Hints:
Elements: H1 8-11, E1 14-16, E2 22-24, H2 38-45, E3 48-49, H3 52-61
Amino acid sequence: MPKMKTKKTFAKRVKVTGTGKLRKYSNYTSHFAANKTHKQKKHLHKPSLVDKSDYKRDRDLLQG
């Protein structure tokens, strides 16, 4: 069976932290930004961890 390749588009959007967790940035940060409040944009800018229900699937995309 051939080696699995890393999904490069996903790898550009996710970083692995020092403890092995996956960190991602939010969507919807710039599109229609004039309609969002300052508080919404401020919270969208902050990175967050990948949810535990998605973690196994996302980790498999990075197996390269």
